[in-house]
Amino acid sequence: QVQLVESGGGLVQAGGSLRLSCAASGRTFSSYVMGWFRQAPGKEREFVAANSWSSGTTVYTDSVKGRFTISRDSAKNTVYLQMNSLKLEDTAVYYCAARDPNNVRVSTTPRNYDYWGQGTQVTVSS
What is the pLDDT of residue 74? Predict the structure, then answer.
């Protein structure tokens, strides 16, 4: 079982930066595929970024490439999402997610993730 707790959301002006953190419990954190998703009001949850430390695979959705960076600190059992050059359309609730350790492939599909955090609000203002 994995528990995920996000933090770091808030209100930021367009062009600014935020770093989201996701603290994970679990003894084999490094073996989990970790992902970030977001959901804006009235919209479906969408993929943002994901990483598999074991395979070295990192994937981003096109709209955040070059602006967002996913990383992890295994010693702290924490995965991060550094968000730069934020745009109004980045406003959403951001969720951290993890796949079961038996699933080692990165996925962009929310239903393929087994564990979810509670979400953290990111609001970008003009």
Answer: 86
**How many Cα atoms occupy the beta-carbon half-sphere of 45 within 13 Å?**
17
User: In whole angstroms, what is the distance from residue 75 CA to residue 45 CA?
Assistant: 29
The secondary structure of 46-86 as a DSSP string is: EEEEEEETTTTEEEE-GGGTTTEEEEEEGGGTEEEEEE-S-
Residue type for position 1: Q
Output the pLDDT for position 27.
65
Helices (H) and strands (E) in the chain, counts: 0, 11
User: Phi, psi (5° rounding) for residue 33?
Assistant: -75, 125
Q: Considering only CA atoms, which of 106, 88, 118 is closest in space to residue 20?
A: 118
